[in-house]
Automatic annotation (TrEMBL):
Name of the protein: Ankyrin
Record lineage: Eukaryota, Fungi, Fungi incertae sedis, Chytridiomycota, Chytridiomycota incertae sedis
Pfam families from the UniProt entry: Ank (PF00023), Ank_2 (PF12796)
Organism: Anaeromyces robustus
Alphabetical UniProt keywords: ANK repeat, Repeat
Signal peptide: none
Amino acid sequence: MDINHDYPLIVSIYCGTPAIFNFLLENGANVNIKDNNGNSILNIALNKPSYLKYLFSKKSINININEKDVSGNYPLMTAIYKNDINSVKSIVRYGTTHGEDMSNILNNNGYTPLILAYKLKYKVVFGCLLRYLDVNAKDLNKNTILYYAIMEEDVTTVSDLIKYGANVNFIDKNGNTPLHLAIYKKNKQIILNLLNSSHNLLLNVPNNQNDIPLVYLIKSLNVYTNDYKEIISLLIKKGTNVNYIDKKGNTPLVYAIKKNFVSVVELLINNGANVNHYIIERDESPLMYAIGLNSISMVKCLVNHNADTNFKNSKNKTVLMKASLTNLEIYNCVSNNNINNY
Protein backbone atom coordinates (compact mmCIF):
# COMPACT_ATOMS: atom_id res chain seq x y z
CA MET A 1 0.00 0.00 0.00
CA ASP A 2 1.00 3.63 -0.48
CA ILE A 3 0.84 6.39 2.16
CA ASN A 4 -2.89 6.71 1.47
CA HIS A 5 -3.31 3.01 2.16
CA ASP A 6 -4.18 2.29 -1.49
CA TYR A 7 -2.96 -0.83 -3.27
CA PRO A 8 -0.61 -0.45 -6.27
CA LEU A 9 -3.30 -1.84 -8.59
CA ILE A 10 -5.70 0.89 -7.51
CA VAL A 11 -3.01 3.57 -7.70
CA SER A 12 -2.22 2.54 -11.27
CA ILE A 13 -5.82 3.28 -12.24
CA TYR A 14 -5.98 6.63 -10.48
CA CYS A 15 -2.63 7.66 -11.93
CA GLY A 16 -3.64 6.72 -15.46
CA THR A 17 -1.01 4.07 -16.11
CA PRO A 18 -2.75 1.17 -17.89
CA ALA A 19 0.56 -0.51 -18.75
CA ILE A 20 1.42 -0.80 -15.06
CA PHE A 21 -2.13 -1.95 -14.33
CA ASN A 22 -1.72 -4.70 -16.92
CA PHE A 23 1.73 -5.65 -15.56
CA LEU A 24 0.35 -6.00 -12.03
CA LEU A 25 -2.51 -8.18 -13.28
CA GLU A 26 -0.10 -10.46 -15.11
CA ASN A 27 1.92 -10.84 -11.94
CA GLY A 28 -0.92 -11.97 -9.72
CA ALA A 29 -2.33 -8.76 -8.24
CA ASN A 30 -5.55 -9.32 -6.26
CA VAL A 31 -8.42 -7.98 -8.37
CA ASN A 32 -10.98 -8.18 -5.57
CA ILE A 33 -9.45 -5.50 -3.34
CA LYS A 34 -11.25 -2.21 -2.64
CA ASP A 35 -10.15 1.42 -2.40
CA ASN A 36 -10.57 3.54 0.70
CA ASN A 37 -14.13 4.37 -0.35
CA GLY A 38 -15.14 0.73 -0.58
CA ASN A 39 -15.15 0.52 -4.37
CA SER A 40 -13.89 -2.64 -6.04
CA ILE A 41 -11.40 -2.72 -8.90
CA LEU A 42 -14.23 -3.63 -11.29
CA ASN A 43 -16.41 -0.72 -10.21
CA ILE A 44 -13.48 1.70 -10.57
CA ALA A 45 -12.55 0.29 -13.98
CA LEU A 46 -16.10 0.79 -15.28
CA ASN A 47 -15.21 4.46 -15.69
CA LYS A 48 -12.02 3.61 -17.59
CA PRO A 49 -12.62 1.30 -20.61
CA SER A 50 -8.94 0.55 -21.29
CA TYR A 51 -8.51 -0.88 -17.80
CA LEU A 52 -11.70 -2.88 -18.10
CA LYS A 53 -10.33 -4.48 -21.27
CA TYR A 54 -7.19 -5.65 -19.45
CA LEU A 55 -9.24 -6.87 -16.50
CA PHE A 56 -11.46 -9.16 -18.56
CA SER A 57 -8.69 -10.35 -20.88
CA LYS A 58 -7.01 -12.37 -18.10
CA LYS A 59 -8.68 -15.78 -18.15
CA SER A 60 -6.94 -16.92 -14.98
CA ILE A 61 -8.35 -14.04 -12.91
CA ASN A 62 -11.42 -14.68 -10.75
CA ILE A 63 -13.37 -11.45 -10.49
CA ASN A 64 -16.18 -11.03 -8.00
CA ILE A 65 -18.57 -9.93 -10.73
CA ASN A 66 -21.47 -9.30 -8.36
CA GLU A 67 -19.63 -7.14 -5.82
CA LYS A 68 -21.77 -4.07 -5.11
CA ASP A 69 -20.33 -0.58 -4.94
CA VAL A 70 -20.77 1.75 -1.95
CA SER A 71 -24.15 2.86 -3.35
CA GLY A 72 -25.40 -0.70 -3.49
CA ASN A 73 -25.18 -1.04 -7.27
CA TYR A 74 -23.94 -4.15 -9.04
CA PRO A 75 -21.30 -3.57 -11.74
CA LEU A 76 -23.73 -4.74 -14.42
CA MET A 77 -26.38 -2.30 -13.22
CA THR A 78 -23.85 0.53 -13.31
CA ALA A 79 -22.89 -0.36 -16.89
CA ILE A 80 -26.58 -0.44 -17.86
CA TYR A 81 -27.22 2.98 -16.31
CA LYS A 82 -24.30 4.33 -18.36
CA ASN A 83 -25.74 2.73 -21.51
CA ASP A 84 -22.25 1.30 -21.96
CA ILE A 85 -22.76 -1.61 -24.32
CA ASN A 86 -19.09 -2.66 -24.29
CA SER A 87 -18.97 -2.93 -20.51
CA VAL A 88 -22.31 -4.73 -20.46
CA LYS A 89 -21.04 -7.28 -23.00
CA SER A 90 -17.81 -7.81 -21.09
CA ILE A 91 -19.58 -8.36 -17.79
CA VAL A 92 -22.29 -10.73 -19.03
CA ARG A 93 -19.84 -12.72 -21.13
CA TYR A 94 -17.52 -13.09 -18.16
CA GLY A 95 -20.45 -14.11 -15.98
CA THR A 96 -21.62 -16.69 -18.52
CA THR A 97 -18.12 -18.14 -18.89
CA HIS A 98 -17.58 -18.38 -15.13
CA GLY A 99 -21.04 -19.65 -14.19
CA GLU A 100 -22.21 -16.42 -12.58
CA ASP A 101 -25.93 -15.93 -13.20
CA MET A 102 -26.83 -12.25 -13.10
CA SER A 103 -30.42 -12.66 -14.30
CA ASN A 104 -31.92 -12.27 -10.83
CA ILE A 105 -29.83 -9.48 -9.35
CA LEU A 106 -31.90 -6.41 -8.51
CA ASN A 107 -31.06 -2.73 -8.48
CA ASN A 108 -32.14 -0.38 -5.71
CA ASN A 109 -35.58 -0.08 -7.32
CA GLY A 110 -36.05 -3.83 -7.45
CA TYR A 111 -35.56 -4.25 -11.21
CA THR A 112 -33.64 -7.04 -12.92
CA PRO A 113 -30.99 -6.09 -15.51
CA LEU A 114 -33.35 -6.88 -18.38
CA ILE A 115 -36.20 -4.87 -16.93
CA LEU A 116 -33.92 -1.95 -16.09
CA ALA A 117 -32.52 -1.76 -19.62
CA TYR A 118 -36.04 -1.98 -21.04
CA LYS A 119 -37.39 0.76 -18.82
CA LEU A 120 -34.45 3.00 -19.70
CA LYS A 121 -35.21 2.31 -23.38
CA TYR A 122 -31.63 1.24 -24.08
CA LYS A 123 -32.49 -1.03 -26.99
CA VAL A 124 -28.96 -2.17 -27.88
CA VAL A 125 -28.14 -3.02 -24.27
CA PHE A 126 -31.51 -4.74 -23.88
CA GLY A 127 -30.90 -6.84 -26.99
CA CYS A 128 -27.51 -7.91 -25.65
CA LEU A 129 -28.91 -8.89 -22.26
CA LEU A 130 -31.72 -10.81 -23.91
CA ARG A 131 -29.15 -13.19 -25.42
CA TYR A 132 -27.41 -13.89 -22.12
CA LEU A 133 -29.89 -13.58 -19.24
CA ASP A 134 -32.97 -15.50 -18.15
CA VAL A 135 -35.99 -13.92 -19.81
CA ASN A 136 -38.23 -15.19 -16.99
CA ALA A 137 -36.35 -13.57 -14.09
CA LYS A 138 -38.75 -11.67 -11.80
CA ASP A 139 -38.32 -8.29 -10.19
CA LEU A 140 -39.27 -7.27 -6.66
CA ASN A 141 -42.93 -7.05 -7.71
CA LYS A 142 -42.78 -10.62 -9.06
CA ASN A 143 -43.15 -9.39 -12.65
CA THR A 144 -41.15 -10.60 -15.63
CA ILE A 145 -40.01 -8.53 -18.58
CA LEU A 146 -43.01 -9.89 -20.55
CA TYR A 147 -45.34 -8.13 -18.11
CA TYR A 148 -43.77 -4.74 -18.81
CA ALA A 149 -43.69 -5.27 -22.59
CA ILE A 150 -47.40 -6.11 -22.61
CA MET A 151 -48.28 -3.14 -20.42
CA GLU A 152 -46.34 -0.92 -22.84
CA GLU A 153 -48.19 -2.58 -25.73
CA ASP A 154 -44.81 -3.26 -27.28
CA VAL A 155 -45.80 -5.80 -29.94
CA THR A 156 -42.28 -6.28 -31.31
CA THR A 157 -40.69 -6.93 -27.92
CA VAL A 158 -43.49 -9.28 -26.89
CA SER A 159 -42.86 -11.32 -30.05
CA ASP A 160 -39.11 -11.36 -29.38
CA LEU A 161 -39.63 -12.43 -25.77
CA ILE A 162 -41.88 -15.30 -26.83
CA LYS A 163 -39.17 -16.45 -29.25
CA TYR A 164 -36.62 -16.33 -26.42
CA GLY A 165 -38.79 -18.57 -24.27
CA ALA A 166 -40.75 -16.11 -22.14
CA ASN A 167 -43.21 -17.88 -19.86
CA VAL A 168 -46.58 -17.03 -21.40
CA ASN A 169 -48.33 -18.51 -18.34
CA PHE A 170 -46.68 -16.50 -15.57
CA ILE A 171 -49.10 -15.06 -13.00
CA ASP A 172 -48.77 -11.57 -11.55
CA LYS A 173 -49.73 -10.48 -8.04
CA ASN A 174 -53.36 -9.98 -9.16
CA GLY A 175 -53.55 -13.47 -10.56
CA ASN A 176 -53.42 -12.25 -14.15
CA THR A 177 -51.72 -14.22 -16.90
CA PRO A 178 -50.13 -12.44 -19.89
CA LEU A 179 -53.37 -13.10 -21.78
CA HIS A 180 -55.38 -11.30 -19.09
CA LEU A 181 -52.98 -8.36 -19.34
CA ALA A 182 -53.20 -8.20 -23.14
CA ILE A 183 -56.99 -8.27 -22.91
CA TYR A 184 -56.87 -5.49 -20.31
CA LYS A 185 -54.83 -3.39 -22.75
CA LYS A 186 -57.24 -4.35 -25.56
CA ASN A 187 -54.29 -5.02 -27.83
CA LYS A 188 -55.48 -7.42 -30.52
CA GLN A 189 -52.04 -8.15 -31.96
CA ILE A 190 -50.51 -9.11 -28.62
CA ILE A 191 -53.53 -11.26 -27.81
CA LEU A 192 -53.16 -13.05 -31.15
CA ASN A 193 -49.39 -13.41 -30.71
CA LEU A 194 -49.94 -15.12 -27.37
CA LEU A 195 -52.72 -17.36 -28.69
CA ASN A 196 -50.74 -18.31 -31.77
CA SER A 197 -47.48 -19.00 -29.94
CA SER A 198 -46.23 -22.57 -29.92
CA HIS A 199 -46.35 -22.63 -26.12
CA ASN A 200 -49.05 -24.47 -24.18
CA LEU A 201 -51.10 -21.44 -23.21
CA LEU A 202 -53.30 -21.95 -20.15
CA LEU A 203 -56.70 -20.54 -21.08
CA ASN A 204 -58.79 -21.59 -18.10
CA VAL A 205 -56.81 -20.09 -15.21
CA PRO A 206 -58.93 -17.52 -13.33
CA ASN A 207 -57.40 -14.33 -11.94
CA ASN A 208 -58.09 -12.95 -8.47
CA GLN A 209 -61.51 -11.75 -9.69
CA ASN A 210 -62.26 -15.35 -10.69
CA ASP A 211 -62.29 -14.46 -14.40
CA ILE A 212 -60.72 -16.72 -17.01
CA PRO A 213 -59.50 -14.81 -20.10
CA LEU A 214 -62.73 -15.48 -22.05
CA VAL A 215 -64.90 -14.05 -19.28
CA TYR A 216 -62.46 -11.19 -18.71
CA LEU A 217 -62.66 -10.31 -22.40
CA ILE A 218 -66.46 -10.37 -22.55
CA LYS A 219 -66.78 -8.30 -19.38
CA SER A 220 -64.27 -5.72 -20.63
CA LEU A 221 -65.98 -5.11 -23.98
CA ASN A 222 -68.15 -2.08 -24.58
CA VAL A 223 -68.64 -2.70 -28.30
CA TYR A 224 -68.43 -6.05 -30.04
CA THR A 225 -66.59 -6.00 -33.37
CA ASN A 226 -65.24 -8.53 -35.85
CA ASP A 227 -61.83 -8.19 -34.19
CA TYR A 228 -63.23 -9.58 -30.98
CA LYS A 229 -65.18 -12.27 -32.83
CA GLU A 230 -61.84 -13.44 -34.23
CA ILE A 231 -60.28 -13.49 -30.76
CA ILE A 232 -63.20 -15.30 -29.10
CA SER A 233 -63.27 -17.83 -31.93
CA LEU A 234 -59.56 -18.46 -31.49
CA LEU A 235 -59.95 -18.79 -27.72
CA ILE A 236 -62.61 -21.43 -28.30
CA LYS A 237 -60.48 -23.20 -30.91
CA LYS A 238 -57.52 -23.28 -28.52
CA GLY A 239 -59.62 -24.89 -25.79
CA THR A 240 -61.17 -22.28 -23.53
CA ASN A 241 -64.00 -23.61 -21.38
CA VAL A 242 -67.21 -22.09 -22.75
CA ASN A 243 -69.08 -23.50 -19.74
CA TYR A 244 -66.71 -22.19 -17.08
CA ILE A 245 -68.64 -21.30 -13.92
CA ASP A 246 -67.27 -18.55 -11.67
CA LYS A 247 -67.84 -18.11 -7.93
CA LYS A 248 -71.08 -16.25 -8.63
CA GLY A 249 -72.36 -19.17 -10.66
CA ASN A 250 -72.14 -17.31 -13.96
CA THR A 251 -70.83 -18.63 -17.27
CA PRO A 252 -69.38 -16.74 -20.25
CA LEU A 253 -72.86 -16.98 -21.81
CA VAL A 254 -74.42 -15.15 -18.87
CA TYR A 255 -71.94 -12.29 -19.18
CA ALA A 256 -72.53 -12.09 -22.94
CA ILE A 257 -76.28 -11.86 -22.29
CA LYS A 258 -75.69 -9.09 -19.75
CA LYS A 259 -73.75 -7.16 -22.40
CA ASN A 260 -76.47 -7.89 -24.97
CA PHE A 261 -73.88 -9.33 -27.36
CA VAL A 262 -76.16 -11.52 -29.47
CA SER A 263 -73.35 -12.55 -31.83
CA VAL A 264 -71.21 -13.70 -28.89
CA VAL A 265 -74.09 -15.67 -27.44
CA GLU A 266 -74.62 -17.41 -30.77
CA LEU A 267 -70.91 -18.15 -31.09
CA LEU A 268 -70.78 -19.61 -27.59
CA ILE A 269 -73.91 -21.74 -28.03
CA ASN A 270 -72.72 -23.02 -31.40
CA ASN A 271 -69.55 -24.16 -29.64
CA GLY A 272 -71.22 -26.03 -26.80
CA ALA A 273 -72.26 -23.39 -24.27
CA ASN A 274 -75.16 -24.55 -22.10
CA VAL A 275 -78.12 -22.42 -23.13
CA ASN A 276 -80.08 -23.64 -20.10
CA HIS A 277 -77.46 -23.10 -17.42
CA TYR A 278 -79.07 -22.41 -14.05
CA ILE A 279 -77.91 -19.07 -12.68
CA ILE A 280 -77.84 -19.77 -8.95
CA GLU A 281 -77.28 -16.18 -7.86
CA ARG A 282 -80.33 -14.98 -9.81
CA ASP A 283 -82.46 -18.13 -9.53
CA GLU A 284 -83.00 -17.85 -13.27
CA SER A 285 -82.23 -19.44 -16.59
CA PRO A 286 -80.38 -17.47 -19.28
CA LEU A 287 -83.69 -16.93 -21.06
CA MET A 288 -85.33 -15.47 -17.96
CA TYR A 289 -82.32 -13.23 -17.49
CA ALA A 290 -82.59 -11.95 -21.08
CA ILE A 291 -86.32 -11.32 -20.62
CA GLY A 292 -85.56 -9.28 -17.51
CA LEU A 293 -83.14 -7.19 -19.56
CA ASN A 294 -85.98 -6.52 -22.01
CA SER A 295 -83.87 -7.54 -25.01
CA ILE A 296 -86.07 -8.97 -27.74
CA SER A 297 -83.06 -9.75 -29.95
CA MET A 298 -81.45 -11.77 -27.19
CA VAL A 299 -84.70 -13.53 -26.31
CA LYS A 300 -85.20 -14.52 -29.96
CA CYS A 301 -81.61 -15.76 -30.17
CA LEU A 302 -81.97 -17.96 -27.09
CA VAL A 303 -85.38 -19.30 -28.11
CA ASN A 304 -84.06 -20.11 -31.58
CA HIS A 305 -81.23 -22.06 -29.94
CA ASN A 306 -83.58 -24.25 -27.88
CA ALA A 307 -83.64 -22.33 -24.63
CA ASP A 308 -86.11 -23.95 -22.22
CA THR A 309 -89.31 -21.88 -22.37
CA ASN A 310 -90.88 -24.11 -19.68
CA PHE A 311 -88.25 -23.38 -17.02
CA LYS A 312 -89.61 -22.72 -13.52
CA ASN A 313 -87.41 -21.27 -10.74
CA SER A 314 -87.38 -22.17 -7.04
CA LYS A 315 -90.31 -19.81 -6.41
CA ASN A 316 -92.38 -21.47 -9.15
CA LYS A 317 -92.04 -18.45 -11.38
CA THR A 318 -92.07 -19.51 -15.03
CA VAL A 319 -90.44 -18.00 -18.09
CA LEU A 320 -93.85 -17.05 -19.44
CA MET A 321 -94.79 -15.30 -16.20
CA LYS A 322 -91.70 -13.15 -16.42
CA ALA A 323 -92.33 -12.47 -20.10
CA SER A 324 -95.83 -11.25 -19.30
CA LEU A 325 -94.29 -8.44 -17.25
CA THR A 326 -92.28 -7.08 -20.18
CA ASN A 327 -93.61 -6.22 -23.63
CA LEU A 328 -95.93 -7.98 -26.05
CA GLU A 329 -93.22 -8.87 -28.57
CA ILE A 330 -91.16 -10.72 -25.97
CA TYR A 331 -94.26 -12.41 -24.57
CA ASN A 332 -95.37 -13.61 -28.00
CA CYS A 333 -91.88 -14.87 -28.82
CA VAL A 334 -91.83 -16.97 -25.66
CA SER A 335 -95.45 -18.11 -25.70
CA ASN A 336 -95.26 -19.28 -29.31
CA ASN A 337 -92.51 -21.67 -28.26
CA ASN A 338 -93.99 -22.72 -24.93
CA ILE A 339 -95.74 -26.08 -24.89
CA ASN A 340 -97.60 -25.33 -21.64
CA ASN A 341 -98.69 -21.89 -22.86
CA TYR A 342 -100.51 -21.02 -19.69
